[in-house]
Amino acid sequence: MPSGSDPSFTPILPGDLSSVLRLSTLAGWNQTADDWARLMRLNPGGVCVWKDRGEVRASFSVTPYAGERRVGWIGMILVDPAWRGRGIGGAALVAALSQIRECGLDLAGLDATDLGEPVYRRHGFQGIRPMTRWRGRLRSGAEEGAGPEPACFAPPDEVLEAFDRRFSGVDRSPLLRDLRQGGAGLLALKDANGGLVAYGFVRPGREAWQLGPVIASGESWIPELLRGLVRRLGEGAECLCDVPDGAIPPAFLRAVGMEASRHLQRMTLPLATGTLCGPGICCATGFEMG
Questions:
Q1: Which of 144, 131, 141, 267 lies closest to 212 in space, CA to CA?
Q2: What's the CATH number where 39 sits?
Q3: Residues 28, 140: one domain?
Q4: 179/256 Cα distance (integer angstroms)
Q5: Which of 155, 272, 284 is nearest to 210 (CA)?
Q6: Residues 20-70: pLDDT tens digits?
Q7: Domain match, 46 and 139 both
Q8: How is residue 226 annotated by DSSP?
Q9: Which residue stretches of 79-138 are H helix?
Q10: Run of H or E including 191
Q11: Which of 26, 35, 129, 242 qualifies as a cystine partner to 31, CB 3.0-4.6 A?
């Protein structure tokens, strides 16, 4: 990159997948090649990269969600360690915001680390809810009074999507269908009348299984869903999830072997409280997808 110039971000090409996976791996993130490919499917022009000598050196992603207020979720702002400190990360954020404006979306959202939060605040983002990444090796929690086998079932796509819209406030149908068709595990609970009351997706990550999104119509369904997760993956499986603070009682997560490992701050521009973290939202999909 010539001195004094800004990097030019362009949509990722299929041949760049291994190069961009290298960036998230260098950062210690949990994403796999399948996660990058999912972002590309959800918004083909929304995953953008800057390359030097044929190698991806920086990236960002924008995932759009339709709804009363159309959201552009920013993720995967990554810079090769050898190229940090040159303003490239800031340029990636500016490029992502420009894409959101050009697409006519109403607001931008992202999950900020402690290191990134001051940067995003300088660009006008405001915090709407603290988040915590929970991580650990799963255990049954039998000593905590585990109940009977959860009443899991496989709801039709339209039922799952309507339930999700009711709590998320946006249309995440493309995401939910991609997760389901892409082999992510679905845990869905029904009440005595057969109605959907909670669901959660779990998918393999580079280092640990990723739980999310998770939505529950009431707190009482969460232990049952977590027990179903342990039964699905088995004891000792490494798992992580990003939880809006207060959405799941910490005792429920500790009962299945997870502990708080990282602090995040959910932020939006402009301020839009409750964006993908209102009542019923128990776990984010992941910080790259909201």
A1: 131
A2: 3.40.630.30
A3: no
A4: 24
A5: 284
A6: 999 999 999 999 999 999 999 999 999 999 999 999 999 999 999 999 999
A7: no
A8: H
A9: 88-102, 117-122
A10: none
A11: 35
